[in-house]
Amino acid sequence: MSILVVGSVALDSIETPFGKVNDILGGSAVYFSTAASYFADINLVAVVGKDFPQEHTDFLASKNIDIKGLQKEEGDTFRWKGKYGFDLNEAHTLDTQLNVFEGFNPVIPDEYRDSEYVFLANIDPDLQMEVLGQVKNPRMVACDTMNFWIEKKREELKRTIEKVDILIINEAEAREFACEPNVVKAARNILSMGPKNLVVKQGEYGALMFTGSSIFSAPAYPLEDIFDPTGAGDSFAGGFIGYLANTHNLEESAIRQAVIFGSVMASFNVEDFSLNRMRNLDYNEIEHRYRKFKELSHFEDV
Questions:
Q1: Tens digits of per-residue pLDDT, 111-136?
Q2: Residues of the chain with pLDDT > 70: what percent?
Q3: Mean pLDDT throughout 35-50?
Q4: Span 154-174, average pLDDT
Q5: The CATH number of the domain where 45 resides is what?
Q6: Rounded CA gap, 198 and 258, in Å?
Q7: Is 54 contained in some domain?
Q8: Which domain holds residue 76?
Q9: pLDDT over 80 at 5, yes or no
Q10: 148 part of a folded domain
């Protein structure tokens, strides 16, 4: 089954306590697509500049990612520079150069419009609505956002969220969007806006999944080596939606499994800079870590 993803492709410069890299491949659509490609076919819509290295285009194509929707425009590719301290849950932005991304107008190729699964990565909610207006009849739509859109385009974001099946955001964003300090109450508030499911990412502490009648808590995988958390949330979304598209099952039991597969892909993502860990990941490694997650959470009844 195919997944349509619309988001950013970027060149990132990142510094953490464990190293420093410049102009590496990044962007929400890239992390999502790479993680999801282990489960399903990906249709990518994004924009890059004339400076975008051919090796990155070749990499995307090598991962079963259709790049006919990757627009190349005059100008430079979106660039982001950030730094992490020992609190790897928070990135400090040092520089943002939107470049061609500032004028991004997502045009969905005809052959992508029948995609059964749609992921609206972290872009302007007006653009997210434009995408929804171009797809025909997706079986499932999932969406991500960030504090900037919550603060600057709240009403537009609410209109988008009314149209999606699953919203995937981090805990701080959930609290801010709902204007509620308690995450459980915040989740109930957000669900009342339209989505059937809400996934709240909690970084190194795991993730929570809320439906109208249940809460599911998944741990984070305990790692010895963490180099770069950039893109972990998008890798989570890729594993999560990729699994749902692969199984074509949207029952709650499958969505719970998908949360774990999302956590698995995020755990691999942070083990190296950029996509280095996921470039040559073997699916057997993914299944093995999934089983390890099950062991982490298992306990006997009394």
A1: 999 999 999 999 999 999 999 999 99
A2: 100
A3: 98
A4: 96
A5: 3.40.1190.20
A6: 13
A7: yes
A8: 2-297
A9: yes
A10: yes
Identify whether 94 is part of a domain: yes
Number of domains in the chain: 1
Residue 302 within a domain: no
242-254 confidence digits (pLDDT tens): 999 999 999 999 9
Which pTM value belongs to this model? Answer: 0.96
Place of tokens 């991304």: 101
